Amino acid sequence: MAVGIFDSGLGGLTVWDAVHRRLPDLPLVYFADSAHAPYGVRDGEDVHRLTRAAVERIWEEGVDLVILACNTASAVALRRIQEEGLPPGKRVLGVFVPLIEALTERKWGDNSPPREVAVKHVALFATPATVASRAFQRELAFRAIGVDVEAQACGGVVDAIEEGDEILAEALVRSHVEALKRKMPHPQAAVLGCTHYPLLADVFQEALGRDVKVFSQASLVAESLADYLRRHPDMLGAGDESRFLSTGDAARVGDRATQFLRRKITFQPA
Prior knowledge:
Elements: E1 3-7, H1 13-22, E2 28-32, H2 44-59, E3 65-68, H3 71-76, H4 78-84, E4 91-93, H5 96-103, E5 115-116, E6 121-126, H6 128-133, H7 135-141, E7 144-145, E8 148-153, H8 157-162, H9 166-183, E9 189-192, H10 201-208, E10 213-215, H11 218-231, E11 243-246, H12 250-261, E12 268-269
Parallel strand pairs: 1-2, 1-3, 2-11, 3-4, 5-7, 6-8, 6-9, 9-10, 11-12
Helix pairs in contact: 1-11, 9-10
């Protein structure tokens, strides 16, 4: 009954943690493609190739449903992977839709036409590849009209987090927020469009100001997954063991993961 969670590195552990808290009895197979992280500076073909290979590897663990907890993979590769066709009984889902549903105050699975929403000015912080894809704006347009989105590519933040350089990561966040506010001085809401960024949510909030509502993905994705599995219990795979897999140095990745979650995490070679 396992479900897979994929990220290019460790940021998806924010989603893993939220899902584990929401569904504590659900076995989770977490796959970090650490050998090729970060994805946010790669071109589309590269992101698609790596994401496809990772998903296929996760399926080998008795998983039928994989969550792309990597915003770059969700933005750049998800639609193509779905359109190319999936094996019978397999599904791949991304992390944008639950976030946009929350932003636009729509219930899970609400497929009604786009409509006016209260939030008119939204700041999007994401990796360069996610920003270039305009996937967030495309998904938002399916659900809302009249929303101005200003995107800020946050180069260097993921690398600093993965290296454990908290001081550099915080400095980069403040710099990127300042750059965004030069383009959009008064955003009403901010979207943290990378699963690494919730680790710095307080820094984003402080730099933006307390009057800006900051949306991050982990808890939203966890609730959306719980709802999806209630409606699609057949998507629980045959696997019954939780595992952490990495294409990188498993011991080093495990040490970083333990720092992230403040609990012992042991990765195995993928």
